[in-house]
Design a protein that fits this description.
alpha+beta; five-stranded mixed β-barrel; 26% strand; elongated; binds 4-amino-1,4-dioxobutan-2-aminium adenosine-5'-monophosphate; binds magnesium ion
Length: 444
């Protein structure tokens, strides 16, 4: 029921985030009931509208009996449009309150089937099953907003440094990152396609056309691992640069990370507070990042009791130990060629190691970026394709890039969810994407 205003005009409709510009005005705010506190003749509906939270104050004596009763009997997550006067109140969450003058209930959630997520503690499985509703809660809100800011920062970084966005296909005819994590799909007339594990191979083609490019899209890995770092569908940003060496790639990765962290600190303080993130840990993320070799990393790990031997890949536990030694991201380069992808250029001085780099985030988070310099010699590339038992015919176009004006080049990929998880200080990547896909989760 909208209140009778003298001019019979509808009050201006605003969002909670705009309240600061409407102090003293009667406005309407459409949203949902987040919580309701009652104290005798006053009730305090807490309204959320996606832009923020605002406490409203409904005083019995100032309202008609019907309106007061309607507000008093609201149920959690009912959709409502509140009308009232905005007042500044430094004690209120968000800094503003509304003195309620009227309400329109769009839908009242039934008591018989109440909103399933209550302020009490729920188990993670329950919350994940109700992910479509869980996204309405404040903490999830903060995470997804920080994700948005990180993605925007990534794009702003590349867009302002001469890169062209060239997105790459999701249906692909062959593997990029090894055949064990491929998702296969039927592609007409008994043909097979694979969901892209990485846009890199195509970005190498577009880099030869545009110089500096990036692609940014969903990527897929049939990872049978149930860890806090693995999703089966994740978003990856992948820059690729013609005429770049391993060192150029490291510089680019470092600059991009510094840009992202600065942006989040500048614009998402409130959300970091909701997440109880220790921001001093983010503030100490300054350049230059320590740069160590795989050999050195193995020595550090062995000194800290890891079983790792030269030649082995780091497990999650190893990355945790390693990154706990530093207060900022570290770059580990020159991993054994044998454990890296077929396209990695070998170090000319020491072919048993590859010109690849991983960036490991601090506080135990581990790898957020993988990349490096690619093989640009056609003969060596063919040899590697055979050694990795990859079908030559599917790579003819890729070999063409080495036949027609080949140059040293490289790039990297950053998994957005791992980056968000680190910046937000989360336990698990599952909360960093609206609808996570994991080994045992395809719903909702
Ligand atoms: O190290 P990866 O496998 O490298 C590539 O795919 C290269 N082709 C990238 C390139 O050079 N253009 O993956 C890159 C990043 C990892 O560092 C990690 O952040 C993320 O992608 N990632 C995953 N994130 C979530 N779940 C998974 N299963 C992931 N696998 C990789
Ligand atoms: Mg990797």
């Amino acid at each position: 029921m909208l209140p009778e205003s003298p001019q019979k005009t509808r009050p201006h409709r605003i969002s909670i985030a705009e309240a600061d510009r409407h102090v003293g005005e009667t406005v309407e705010i459409p949203g949902w009931l987040y919580n309701l506190r009652k104290s005798g003749k006053i009730v305090f509906p807490l309204l959320r509208d996606g832009s923020g939270l605002m406490q409203a104050v409904a005083v019995k004596s100032a309202l008609s009996e019907a309106v007061f009763e309607e507000i008093k009997n609201l149920t959690q997550e009912s959709s409502i449009i509140l009308t009232g006067k905005v007042r500044k109140d430094d004690r209120a969450p968000g800094g503003y309150e509304m003195d309620v003058e009227g309400i329109q209930t769009v839908q009242r959630v039934s008591e018989q089937d109440p909103y399933p997520i209550t302020p009490k503690e729920h188990g993670v499985d329950f919350l994940m099953d109700h992910r479509h509703l869980w996204l309405r809660s404040q903490r999830q809100h903060s995470i997804i907003r920080i994700r948005h800011t990180i993605i925007k920062a990534v794009r702003d970084y590349f867009d302002s440094h001469g890169f062209t966005l060239v997105d790459t296909p999701i249906f692909t005819p062959a593997a990029c990152e090894g055949t064990t994590t491929l998702f296969e799909v039927n592609y007409f007339d008994d043909d097979k396609a694979y969901l892209s594990q990485s846009g890199q191979l195509y970005s190498e083609a577009t880099a030869m056309a545009f110089g500096k490019v990036y692609c940014f899209g969903p990527t897929f890995r049939a990872e049978k691992s149930k860890t806090r770092r693995h999703l089966t569908e994740f978003w990856m940003v992948e820059p690729e640069i013609a005429y770049a060496t391993l060192e150029d790639i490291k510089d680019c990765a470092e600059e991009m990370i510094l840009f992202i962290v600065a942006r989040v600190l500048e614009s998402r303080r409130e959300d970091l507070k909701v997440l109880e993130r220790d921001v001093s840990k983010l503030e100490s993320v300054q350049g230059p990042f320590p740069r160590i070799s795989y050999d050195e990393a193995v020595r550090i790990l062995q000194a800290h009791g890891s079983e790792i031997q030269w030649g082995g890949d780091f497990g999650g536990a190893d990355e945790t130990i390693l990154t706990q030694q530093f207060d900022r991201p570290i770059m580990v380069d020159r991993y054994p060629t044998a454990i890296k992808a077929f396209y990695m250029a070998p170090d000319p001085e020491r072919p048993e190691v590859a010109l690849g780099v991983d960036v490991l985030a601090p506080e135990g988070y581990g790898e957020i970026i993988g990349g490096g310099q690619r093989i640009h010699d056609p003969e060596l590339l063919l040899k590697r394709i055979d050694e990795h038992h990859l079908p030559r015919e599917a790579f003819n176009w890729y070999i063409d890039l080495r036949k027609y004006g080949t140059v040293p080049h490289g790039g990297f990929g950053m998994g957005i969810e791992r980056c968000v998880s680190w910046i937000c200080g989360l336990e698990h990547v599952r909360e960093t994407i609206a609808f996570p896909r994991m080994l045992y989760r395809l719903r909702p």
